[in-house]
Amino acid sequence: MKLHSNRAVTVALSRIVRLTAKVLSVSALALVVPVIAPGTRGPNVADVASAQQMPAMSSPSCFNDGTGCRVGSIGPAGGVIFYDAGSMQWWGRYLEAKTTSVLAEGPWGSAVGKPGVDNKEIGMGRANSGLMAQDSSSVYARKRSYFVSWLYEFYLPSKDELDALYNYWKTSGDPRLQYAAAPMWTSSEASATFVWYQLFQDGTQFTDANGIMRGYKGNKDYLKSPVHAGSDFKATEFQVIGVRALPVTTKLQSDVNLTVNSPTNNPQCSAGGANTVCKVGDIGPGGGIVFYDAGKDEYWGRYLEMAPKSCEGERLPWRPAGNTKTVYTGSGSQSAAELRLLAKGLGMGKVNTRVITLALGAGTKPYAAKFAEDSTCGGKDDWFLPSKDELDIAFNRLAQNRVAGNDTPVGGFNKGYYWTSTDYNNSTAWTQYFMDGQQFDRVQTLDGNKNPPNPFRVRPIRAFGTNNVVLACKDGGPCKVGDTSPFGLTVFYVAPDLLIANGTEWRYLSVFKFDSEWKIDFGVFCNLKKAVPTRRGLGEGIRNTRLIFSLCDLGFEQNVSKDSLHVPSIDELKLALKILGSPSGSYWSSTSSGATDAYAMVCNGGSCTEVVKDRDMRLNWIVIQAFK
Prior knowledge:
By secondary structure, the chain is an alpha+beta fold. It has helices at 6-25, 125-133, 139-142, 144-147, 159-172, 267-270, 336-342, 349-360, 368-374, 388-398, 497-501, 541-550, 557-560, 570-579; strands at residues 80-89, 92-97, 102-103, 183-189, 195-199, 205-206, 239-240, 243-246, 289-298, 301-306, 313-314, 417-423, 428-433, 439-443, 457-458, 461-464, 490-494, 508-512, 520-521, 565-566, 585-593, 597-604, 607-614, 618-619, 623-627.
C-alpha cells in the first residue's frame, strides 16, 4: 500500500472541506436524526467493538451555540453529539455525551428533588443534577471532577436523556463511545426513595419499586444492581455518564405541561379530514385521546391517538401458545438483534404490528398484535400495537394522577402490564408496568401473572396526519428518487418502511459528484493491511466509512462523515452511479475485500460492472449523504 505525502493529504482534505461547505450552504435546514433513533438507524456494534477510537479533531466544528452541530459530531467539550431535537427547545437543541463511563464509587445519594413524570424528560438532567449537587453524599457531588471542568459542565442525565444515549450508542456503533456493560444511574427520581437507572447490558430502565424487588423500600443506597428474576445479568457496580445540553439556556424546566388531566373536545381534531388540527389531550378521530404531536407530518403521520378503555384487550399473549415462528430473522446485512433494537422507536408501532402478524399468522385465538390490528374501535380500522417508546410516551401523558391502585382518571388504565409491539429476543417482548412506568421483557406466550396484577392487556393506538400540507423534498417533505434533497444533492434511494424499522439510521440516500479531477487511492482511507469488516448493503456506507477511518491514521473521517457525508458501500455505489447516468470511469466503494483489495465499479458506454481491485490503485470516488 502506498503512503501519500503530507502535501497530497493536505490538498485532499482542503477539497473535502470545500465540498462540506458547499453542501451545508445549500440549506439551513438541520439534519434531524430520530432516537430509536437517529438517531434511528444503522446498528453495527459487535464487529467494531475492538476498533480503535476515531481520531479527535484538532479544532471543533460543532460550537457551543449549536453552529455546525450534527448527530455524530465531536462536541465543543470533546464529547459526541448524540441527540438533535430538530429545533431549539427550552433547554437547548443538542445533547453531548462524554465518551467514557466511570464507576459511581458509592450510592446515588439521598436528595429529594421533584419526583414524578416531569423529571424524566429530555432537558431535565441539568435541573435534576443541580438539586443533587446540594447533597454532598450524591454521586453527582462525589464525582464532580468527572462532570465539571473549568470551561464545561456535564451533568447526570435524566431517564429519557440516558435512554437516548443508549439508543445512539447501540444503533450507531460509534467506536468513540467506550461505555461499560453495567447499570448506569440517571438523575430522575421516581419517589423519595427510588430513582431510575438503566442497564447498559440491554437498555432496560428500572426503579425496582412497587414490588418489582419484593421487600425493597428504596434503591438510592444501591452500590450494585440487584439480580432480577429471570435475568442472567449479575450484580454489577453502578457507573455514571456525563451529558450536557447546547446551546446553554437559562431555563430549568418547560413552561408547557403535557400531562393530560382531562380530555378536551376539539371538533377540528375529532372530525379528522383535510383540516385536522389537534393538540395533546384532544379527543381524536377514533374516539381516543391524542397523546403525541410530532409538530409536522412524518412518514408515519403526525399525531398518535390512544384507544379508549372500551377497546382494550385483556388476558392476551404476545404470541399464541405453540407458535414457534420467528418474527425477526435479519434483513440483508442487519441481524435480528439489530432489527429488534430499532423496533423500540417512536413511529415504529405500525410497522412492528404488521411484521408480527405476517410472521405469526392469523392464529386460532387472538394475540396482542392481531387484536390491535383487527380493531375497528371508533369506526377506524388502522389501529396497531404501540412500540416500546410509543407506549412510554402514552404512559407519561395519560396515565398519571392514579389514586392508590385504581384505574387512572384519564384513559382508565389498569395498574398492571400492557404489551408493546417490540420484540426482545423472540422468546420475550417488552411490556410496561402501568403502576409506575417501568418496562420489562416478559415471556411472549404468557397472558398474565400468577399473582396480581394478573391479566396482560392490550391498548391499541393509531397514527394520523393533517392531510393538508405536503412539503417538497427540498423543503423537508417526503422524497422520491430523483428529487433534490434539502442539502442540494440528488436522491437516489428511498428506504421502504420495513428497512426504516430494521436498522438504517436514515431514510434517504443522496449523491453529490466531485468534478473529474478527484482521484484518491483507497489506501488513503486506511493504511492498515488487514481485513476490515465492512458491509456491502444499502445503508451500510456511513458505517463502513466510520469504521475504516477509525482504523487509519489520516483523519478523513472528521471531514467526510460529518453531516452524514460518506463513501458509499458497493450496493449504494451502484444506485448512485445509475442516477448520475453511469459516467465513464472507475469508482471506489467503501466495501473492502480481504486484506488488500476493495470493491469498485467500472463504467463505460453507459453501463457499469462490479469489480475487485487492489487498494493501491488510483480510482475516482464520489461522496453520498444520508438524511431523514
